[in-house]
Amino acid sequence: MKISLVAVEPNEQQPCVDCSVRQFSLCAALDRAELRELEHLGRHVHFATCETVFAQEEMTTSFYNLLEGVMRLYKLLPDGRRQIVGFALPGDFLGMTASARHSFSADAIGPVTICRFSRAAFARFIEDKAHLLRRINELAVRELSQAQDHMVLLGRRSAEEKVATFLIGWRDRLGRLSGPAKTVPLPMSRQDIADYLGLTIETVSRTFTKLERDRVIDILPGSISLLDPARVEALAAA
Amino acid sequence: MKISLVAVEPNEQQPCVDCSVRQFSLCAALDRAELRELEHLGRHVHFATCETVFAQEEMTTSFYNLLEGVMRLYKLLPDGRRQIVGFALPGDFLGMTASARHSFSADAIGPVTICRFSRAAFARFIEDKAHLLRRINELAVRELSQAQDHMVLLGRRSAEEKVATFLIGWRDRLGRLSGPAKTVPLPMSRQDIADYLGLTIETVSRTFTKLERDRVIDILPGSISLLDPARVEALAAA
DNA sequence: CGGTACATTGAGAGATATCAACAGGCGTGG
DNA sequence: CCACGCCTGTTGATATCTCTCAATGTACCG
Hints:
The first copy, chain A, is of the alpha+beta class. Helices cover 39% and strands 25% of the residues of chain A.
């Protein structure tokens, strides 16, 4: 939870039209004129591994569009217990909140690049753009649906099902960005996975090991290879 | 899960302006002219106890504004395990979904009155109304935030904390509608509570009993009285 | 090469689930 | 009006999954 020396790039940023995550992001709903307008509002910012982009209870000052890297989004209980409510990937939009304060923290897993918008300016920008508001709705509703899926996982699934579901879900999300692959990179730590699945780090580790013994997966440094994707999918569906 | 004989009211419905849940609902964002327009789109519908309003995987045909009663919203796993993702109260808006099918089921806990809108007509109605879209956003984001809170509960809290958090949360929601009270009506069954908290019915029952033995609550038929609200709140905050 | 952080493994404890019995309320029907 | 059955909720005994605590192993980095 280091505080970032905010590294703003020199003003010659890549134009929005060429943005690598545009079609995955909010901005997919914008036309060329709007993109050019938006260009003046966004600033690219870098964060190093484990830096906190914003923290629970902090005032919300910005919206964020993740360009590169992975982030963990989490809530802390007063006694330190942590629940990761999601991982953010390029294209994900952060900072929507009902209140004036962030309801969760977000920090970088590995180096991260973010397109940051001043809250007020962005609010003014979208204010009367119905097509953009509909797009934001779509994203919010999709996230809500994912959250509900995750509730089922947390409330009703066994450790093995949790781990399998996580692997499949993560593989599919990465697949949507970079195409399908049998080897699933896991940039986050075992502790992160545990806090995402409502387990302890030991249970996550044991479950991986069990799946490996069963010849279902192969544990590699920084990734997992799905030897028998169908088996993993079956566990995840069950 | 009976199928409802849809009981449409005679066409003289109460006008939207006089709607009892208007200020809590989506419609709070509408002016008088828009309300009159909306009046033609909504139909009041009644459902009896345990009737299903819509089911997971069903095509979405309508939006729903809950007027009276309580509903349970839940997802089922193939083997029948159930996770209740939320309870709906008057003013709650249902039917927003990213896909063309419902991602969860909704049925009535006790008699329910709903204001139903045809999906297409409602979509047309909101299409260009930025203020209404912003209001929908606000509702969606608030729900997402609640969902994240619930993830923390499901993933990281003990049975006792879960039950206490549920009691406080439910009390506060009811309080917002009908003013504060020390006795919290629980229209849902123990099984519903269990499926909401990711517990079994027995654990819920035992936890209630324990809290009663500790003189923290009083178990009444159909409700719980908070003898020591501060203790319950402390458990919920922990 | 040593140190540190992260991951794995093992043994044992504990919380919650499971299985089973019982109690109470309510509606039905005699 | 009472008896019966059914449904919901409570309680008890036991099982089991996951957690906790502790040790060991491994990779990365100065």
